[in-house]
Design brief:
It is built from 10 helices and 8 strands. With 216 residues, the protein is α/β, with parallel strands linked by helices. The chain has an 8-stranded parallel beta barrel with strand order 1-2-3-4-5-6-7-8, surrounded by 7 helices. Helix 3 links the parallel strand 2 and strand 3. It is globular. Bound molecules: 4-methyl-5-hydroxyethylthiazole phosphate and magnesium ion. 4-methyl-5-hydroxyethylthiazole phosphate (TZP) binds next to loops. The site of magnesium ion (MG) has 5 residues, from loops.
């Protein structure tokens, strides 16, 4: 059994977070993409399926669980805490307009991690106070993956790092070209979505990014 404590330890060491977003990946390809991310050595993998019915999300989640070794990456589900137990996810991720951290924790299985998206310094501080185990901070740059959001810019990274103790994952428009600026701004941990999912060689791309993260 993986406990919350063990998951939190893994989370503290984590640097690279990948999201399997069904806006980029057809459901049939989700298991293969997940295997590629595991091979690449990412630390967290999230399932983000904004437009699929709950039954399809549950099915995809179970397939992803089967592809992610329990000693491997942390497996997070976006948005549906009530499915966390059924798919065997390690945690749940909620946004500003979703359930509170406490509600998400209560609905997910015991020991589940809860992450929360934040888009400003105030939201980052509030998410930590609310009890989030980690926060996402972004979008750092404009991104087609979340087109309606105004980018916060890299300057927010250092402000959040100074104000918040929970792990901060910077997200939005991050790729091998923008990563140096993100790291220079003080980021320790990043989420990469489209650049990873659209790469021709996902394990090699993970390796490249992990080397950049390690060198910082
Ligand atoms: N939340 C803030 S930005 C973002 C999410 C889910 C999308 C990031 O995607 P990409 O493709 O890495 O810019
Ligand atoms: Mg959400």
């Amino acid at each position: 059994m993986t406990t919350l404590e063990q998951r939190l330890q893994k989370l503290t060491r984590a640097r690279l977070y990948a999201i399997v977003d069904t806006g980029y990946v057809e459901p049939e390809r989700v298991p293969w993409i997940t295997e590629q991310l595991v091979l690449g050595g990412v630390d967290l993998i999230q399932l983000r399926a904004k437009k699929l019915p709950l039954s399809a999300i549950a099915e995809l989640g179970q397939k992803m669980r089967a592809a992610i070794p329990s000693a491997g990456p942390i497996f997070i589900l976006n948005d549906h805490p009530e499915l966390v137990a059924e798919i065997g996810a390690d945690g749940i991720h909620v946004g500003q307009d979703d359930l509170s951290v406490a509600e998400a924790r209560a609905q997910a299985r015991p020991g589940a991690l809860v992450g929360k998206s934040t888009h400003s310094l105030d939201q980052a501080i509030a998410a930590e106070k609310e009890g989030a185990d980690y926060i996402g901070v972004g979008p750092i740059y404009a991104t087609p993956t979340k087109p309606d959001y105004v980018p916060v810019g890299p300057a927010l990274i250092g402000q959040v790092r100074d104000a918040v103790r929970v792990p901060q994952f910077c997200i939005g428009g991050i790729n091998e070209q923008t990563l140096p600026e993100v790291l220079a701004a003080g980021a320790l941990r990043v989420v990469i979505v489209s650049a990873l999912l659209q790469s021709d060689d996902i394990p090699a791309y993970c390796q490249l990014v992990r080397e950049q993260l390690k060198a910082s």
